[in-house]
């Protein structure tokens, strides 16, 4: 049997085999638990432990730290497969990456070697604490402070909407570490949950993504040794962006997987429900709806996969492509889950059927890790800047009056 090994890496056979294992896990274990997970907003420990024990979290981490370091082209297929039945489970895979990447890539090597192997096995959990009450989209405006005192830093501020804060053992905290305004003043730290002065607030009730609770994190004179700084002073924004690119591609994969599951359920329902003497699926209007959704979803999947390959190839414009993949997949995912629910009629609105869960979960993909509006701004700004600097000679308008 072909399996991944650090020596041979991810051969095509190893990729196929791992995906088949994930598929079996989805059908036999994660899928059957998903409806229960979607009923109560508390951390889905069984799902988390299962993903950890099957080596799914490890795919995010370098082999030197005990991970299996799957290429992004494989990661998106794993995430998509899981999201087809359970958003919470898929978000655990992307969330482990989001909160672990700053440690694996930017912590001093001995600190990374202590912690990352335990993140890969699910023994430890980390949360990524960037957002604040007055700084969500405008991350560079965050006001949590980090003052240097000898060998340590003293952190003060409030972070909000922090996924898995109720259960995390540690937090990546991005704070204003020097007097420089804007993004250049930000520095990232690894902060232990049991640090004196760190308090996790009560769980914040929310619309969807049950199984993956959020809370505020309060930092009052929390002392962090300089050995727990991640990257250089002033590199916090860069670290956050590097981490978020991966998370944004992950959001696209979750949105696509969920939309795939929604279409499959709607198509199945259309064979069972009869109106006007025929099954729903025999009405041309319903067939066209399904056809439009499936075609648009396939286009979005191609965009996401192309983006994943660009990531693996080190494309210097990957941030813009990640924004494109995310905004396209997540906006489409919202439309598809809404339309699939519509195909279920009244049943779609009931908690008995999974579509209402899918629709509630879809909304977060359009908000988290940068909202759709912000990603469109990133893409548009990039196009305008690029056009101002260099044009293909055939498209040069400089001789024309504007
Ligand atoms: C369930 C959940 C989990 C989360 N998990 C985490 C986490 O683990 N860690 C973390 O750090 N954060 C987390 N977040 C925060 C999330 O990333 C932010 O909510 C998101 O970036 C948007 O920020 P905001 O909520 O402050 O919205 P705002 O920035 O206040 O924006 C409000 C609205 O205005 C729009 N808008 C803002 N500026 C512009 C503009 N220039 N042009 C056009 N439209 C604009 C936005 O698109 C949005 O629709 C989570 C949020 C949720 C809801």
UniProtKB/TrEMBL annotation:
Family annotation (InterPro entries): Acyl-CoA_DH_CS, Acyl-CoA_Oxase/DH_mid-dom, Acyl-CoA_Oxase/DH_mid-dom_sf, AcylCo_DH-like_C, AcylCo_DH/oxidase_C, AcylCoA_DH/ox_N, AcylCoA_DH/ox_N_sf, AcylCoA_DH/oxidase_NM_dom_sf
Main function: Catalyzes the conversion 3-sulfinopropanoyl-CoA (3SP-CoA) to propanoyl-CoA by abstraction of sulfite. Does not show dehydrogenase activity.
Coiled-coil ranges (or none): none
Assigned protein family: Belongs to the acyl-CoA dehydrogenase family.
Organism: Zeimonas arvi
Cofactors named for this entry: FAD
Keyword Oxidoreductase: yes
Catalysed conversion reaction: 3-sulfinopropanoyl-CoA + H2O = propanoyl-CoA + sulfite + H(+)
Domain Acyl-CoA dehydrogenase/oxidase N-terminal: 13-123
Recorded GO MF terms: acyl-CoA dehydrogenase activity; flavin adenine dinucleotide binding; hydrolase activity
Domain spans labelled Acyl-CoA oxidase/dehydrogenase middle: 127-222
Ranges where the Acyl-CoA dehydrogenase/oxidase C-terminal domain occurs: 234-383
Pfam families per record: Acyl-CoA_dh_1, Acyl-CoA_dh_M, Acyl-CoA_dh_N
UniProt entry keywords in alphabetical sequence: FAD, Flavoprotein, Hydrolase, Oxidoreductase
Gene3D superfamilies found in the cross-reference section: Acyl-CoA dehydrogenase/oxidase, N-terminal domain, Butyryl-CoA Dehydrogenase, subunit A, domain 2, Butyryl-CoA Dehydrogenase, subunit A, domain 3
Enzyme class: hydrolase
Domain of life: Bacteria
Keyword Flavoprotein: yes
Subunit details: Homotrimer or homotetramer.
Protein name: 3-sulfinopropanoyl-CoA desulfinase
Entry's EC annotation: 3.13.1.4
């Amino acid at each position: 049997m072909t399996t991944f090994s650090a020596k041979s890496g991810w051969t095509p056979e190893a990729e196929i085999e791992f995906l088949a294992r994930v598929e079996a896990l989805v059908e036999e274990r994660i899928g059957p638990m998903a409806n229960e997970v979607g009923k109560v907003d508390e951390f889905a420990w069984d799902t988390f432990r299962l993903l950890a024990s099957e080596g799914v979290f490890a795919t995010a981490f370098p082999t030197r730290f005990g991970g299996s370091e799957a290429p992004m082209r494989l990661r998106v297929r794993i995430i998509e497969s899981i999201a087809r039945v359970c958003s919470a489970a898929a978000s655990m895979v992307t969330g482990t990456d989001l909160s672990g990447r700053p440690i694996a890539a930017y912590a001093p090597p001995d600190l990374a070697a202590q912690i990352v192997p335990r993140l890969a096995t699910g023994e430890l959990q980390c949360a990524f604490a960037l957002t604040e009450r007055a700084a969500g989209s405008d991350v560079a405006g965050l006001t949590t402070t980090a003052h240097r005192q000898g060998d340590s830093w003293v952190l003060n501020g409030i972070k909000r909407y922090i996924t898995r804060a109720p259960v995390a053992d540690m937090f990546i905290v991005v704070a204003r570490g020097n007097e420089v305004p804007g993004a250049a003043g930000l520095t990232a730290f690894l902060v232990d949950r049991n640090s004196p002065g760190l308090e996790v607030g009560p769980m914040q009730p929310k619309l969807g993504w049950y199984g993956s609770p959020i809370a505020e994190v309060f930092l009052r004179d929390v002392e962090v040794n300089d050995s727990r700084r991640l990257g250089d002073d002033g590199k916090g924004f860069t670290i956050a962006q590097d981490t978020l690119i991966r998370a944004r591609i992950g959001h696209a994969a979750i949105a696509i997987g969920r939309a795939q599951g929604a279409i499959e359920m709607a198509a199945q329902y259309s064979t069972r429900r009869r109106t006007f003497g025929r099954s729903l699926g025999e009405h041309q209007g319903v067939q066209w709806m399904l056809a439009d959704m499936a075609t648009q979803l396939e286009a979005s999947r191609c965009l996401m996969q192309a983006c994943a390959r660009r990531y693996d190839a080190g494309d210097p414009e990957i941030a813009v492509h990640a924004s494109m993949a995310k905004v396209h997949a997540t906006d489409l995912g919202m439309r598809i889950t809404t339309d699939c629910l519509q195909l279920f009629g009244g049943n779609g609105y009931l908690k008995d059927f999974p579509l209402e869960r899918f629709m509630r979960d879809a909304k977060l993909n359009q908000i988290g890790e940068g909202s759709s509006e912000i990603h469109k701004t990133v893409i548009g700004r990039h196009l305008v800047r690029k056009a101002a600097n260099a044009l293909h000679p055939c498209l040069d308008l400089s001789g024309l009056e504007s």
